[in-house]
Amino acid sequence: MIKKLQALKAKKGFTLVELIVVIAIIGVLAAILVPTLLGVVTKSRVTSADSTAKSIRDTITEFLTDADTAGYGMKSSASVTQTLSIQVDGGKWTVAAADKANFKKGNGTDIEWGTASGAVDTSTTLSGNKSAEKLLASKLANRFPDMKTASIAASLRGDANCVALAYTADTSAAITLGTNLPKLGTNGEWDSTAYEWDGKNAGISPTDGYIVGTSPKVDIG
Predict the structure, then answer these.
(1) What is the pTM of this model?
(2) Is there a cis peptide before residue 216, judged by omega within 30 degrees of 0?
(3) What is the number of alpha carbons within 13 Å of residue 17 lying toward its C-beta?
(4) Is residue 80 helix, strand or coil?
């Protein structure tokens, strides 16, 4: 027993200086690694948002192509442009009313644009519905059933369907292109002027820090 106590006494612990040095080294490593890791996470989120934006844009283009076949698509002119505001709140999709002057009438189907739609999710029955906005909301809800919160701004053009789209999952409030997001040119596509985003990362809104996906991709200026 005595020998054990003597052995324990003989063992040396860390000195205060050694502990301070170790803590300092950990602090330096953290200062180097944490921003790097955060940057990787941010880029990953932006990449995911860009992918989702492209999928939503493709879905809207698909809907407009079908609508054109059915007689209620956009008027076929490069001078006809329309911005759609779309919100997702609690899994319910709402497409704000479009300008009916930009679209054809329903070719006997009576489906028309220009009426504000109520919130639509996968449980909504749309049999006989005549609102094009509501039908689009239904298609999006069924294509993206797991999306619970989002705000989308889509730019449409008569000769090319959906030409630009911005998407964020950080809010369900309306987002406005050209305000705190990339702006559109006269042809409805992204303006050729470089966009600064937050000054560091493409895909980060400069005013509110939202992660924003764009399609086509808008890089940093």
Answers:
(1) 0.80
(2) yes
(3) 0
(4) coil
